[in-house]
């Protein structure tokens, strides 16, 4: 599985919070108009809601916290990205979800960086696009879990990843109930 690389670097919490079920994922899929990448769903199922290395929060559609909930944050983040695209059209020319092949946000950093999928092609093949707070968007031909695993080991360099994120191994801190 794609997520195995991440499992080896990021210990799973003993008691994950706000995990998915098949029925819940069906509801999310229908709200977004299609399936999400399998490794993302496995991440939510195994880790639940929380923060990686005190820096990056993967949005979770089952979170009761609207600041972490994927379905809430998609619209919040897309609104901010739309404004960025309007104000800086030469630096930010990428389409946004629900446009064909548009960016779909899946995480944010404590620094305000946004992590997205480019929804070109099948959901299992979506690549990662980072939108650093202080730089131009960056494309990575990696799945979400590959990007996170290689970011933890320092193999991926991105303006959106703080140097302390690349610790070799990760820590996952579940969000409080």
Question: Would you give an account of this structure?
Answer:
The structure is a single chain. The chain has 177 residues and is an alpha+beta fold. It has one domain: SMI1/KNR4-like, CATH 3.40.1580. Helix content is 29%, strand content 16%. It is built from 5 helices and 7 strands, in the order H-H-H-E-E-H-E-E-E-E-H-E.
Outline of this structure?
This protein is of the alpha+beta class.
**Overall mean pLDDT score?**
92
Structural class of the secondary elements? alpha+beta
Q: Write out the strand line-up for the largest beta sheet, numbering strands in chain order.
A: 6-5-4-3-2-1-7
> Which CATH-level-2 architecture?
3-Layer(aba) Sandwich
Share in helix: 25-40%
Shape: globular
Report the strand count.
Answer: 7
CATH class descriptor name:
Alpha Beta
Task: Kindly report the CATH topology.
Answer: SMI1/KNR4-like
Tell me the β content. Answer: 15-25%
Number of helix segments? 5
Order of helices and strands: HHHEEHEEEEHE
Specify the biggest β-sheet.
7 strands, antiparallel
**Count of discrete domains:** 1
Q: Could you tell me the radius of gyration in angstroms?
A: 15 Å
Low-confidence stretches: none
End-to-end distance: 30 Å
């Amino acid at each position: 599985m794609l997520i195995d690389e991440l499992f080896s670097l990021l210990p799973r919490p003993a008691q994950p919070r706000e995990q998915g079920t098949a029925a819940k994922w069906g509801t999310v899929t229908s709200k977004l108009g299609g399936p999400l990448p399998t490794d993302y769903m496995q991440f939510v199922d195994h880790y639940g809601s929380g923060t990686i290395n005190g820096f990056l929060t993967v949005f979770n559609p089952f979170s009761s916290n609207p600041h972490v909930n994927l379905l809430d944050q998609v619209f919040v983040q897309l609104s901010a990205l739309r404004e960025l695209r309007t104000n800086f059209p030469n630096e930010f020319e990428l389409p946004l979800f629900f446009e064909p092949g548009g960016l779909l946000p899946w995480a944010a950093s404590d620094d305000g960086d946004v992590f997205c999928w480019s929804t070109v092609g099948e959901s299992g093949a979506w690549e990662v696009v980072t939108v650093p707070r202080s730089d131009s968007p960056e494309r990575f031909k990696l799945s979400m879990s590959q990007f996170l695993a290689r970011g933890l080991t320092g193999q991926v360099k991105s303006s959106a990843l703080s140097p302390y994120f690349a610790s070799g191994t990760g820590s996952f801190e579940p969000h409080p109930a």
